[in-house]
Amino acid sequence: MATPLKIDFVSDVSCPWCAIGLGSLNKALEAIGDAADVELHFQPFELNANMPPEGQDIGEHLTEKYGSTPEQQEQAREMIRARGAEVGFDFAMGKRSRIYNTFDAHRLLHWAGLEGKQTALKQALFKAYFTQGLDPSAHEVLIYLAGEVGLDKERATQVLHSGEYGAEVREAEQFFHRHGINSVPAVIINERHLISGGQPAAVFEQALREIMAKPA
């Protein structure tokens, strides 16, 4: 009988290591196959909750937030690009020059979860930002992506323009902050086990198999 795995994937749309972590998790779950009965939920986390609507230049942002030099940023970009390639994700670094506010994207993801399309929308958002260089805070981008994954575009427009699910997103963010989640990705298995960071697929697979082997 398949072992139930409830996975809460706490992440931000603008976090490259979250895209890598999701790719690694997917590869690990493919390797595990039918041995696991997976229930996957994407939970909100904003790396830059106070980011203004116009966003900020990435180089400027990284220098202000982390004190990194252009050389260090270039090294980090190459590492991210290489790790993405390992899990089949394309980071087109030349197309992405700004970082944006992601609150509306999280509201749309919350609604997508109610409609059974959350994973598809999450993957579409990562691709839109990191591969295509699109603005994940722009309503026209979010509405287009909703339609691309089979969601109702008129309802998506309503959600974005009304502020719906804002309270639910804030509540979820506060819940995970209260429980010690201060960096992402944070992958929580069965509400008890934490796997932190954009780990390689083999690390995810080993951790998941160990959790599955433990008595319920």
From TrEMBL:
The record, for Gene3D superfamilies, names:
Glutaredoxin (3.40.30.10)
Q: Which residues form a coiled coil?
A: none
What Pfam families does the record point to?
DSBA
CDD domains registered for this protein in UniProt: DsbA_FrnE (cd03024)
Q: Which InterPro entries match?
A: DSBA-like_thioredoxin_dom, Thioredoxin-like_sf
Where the record annotates domain DSBA-like thioredoxin, the positions are 7-208
Output the PANTHER family linked to this UniProt entry: GLUTATHIONE S-TRANSFERASE KAPPA, THIOREDOXIN SUPERFAMILY PROTEIN
User: What is this protein called in UniProt?
Assistant: Thioredoxin domain-containing protein
The record lists the organism as Duganella guangzhouensis
The organism's lineage is: Bacteria, Pseudomonadati, Pseudomonadota, Betaproteobacteria, Burkholderiales
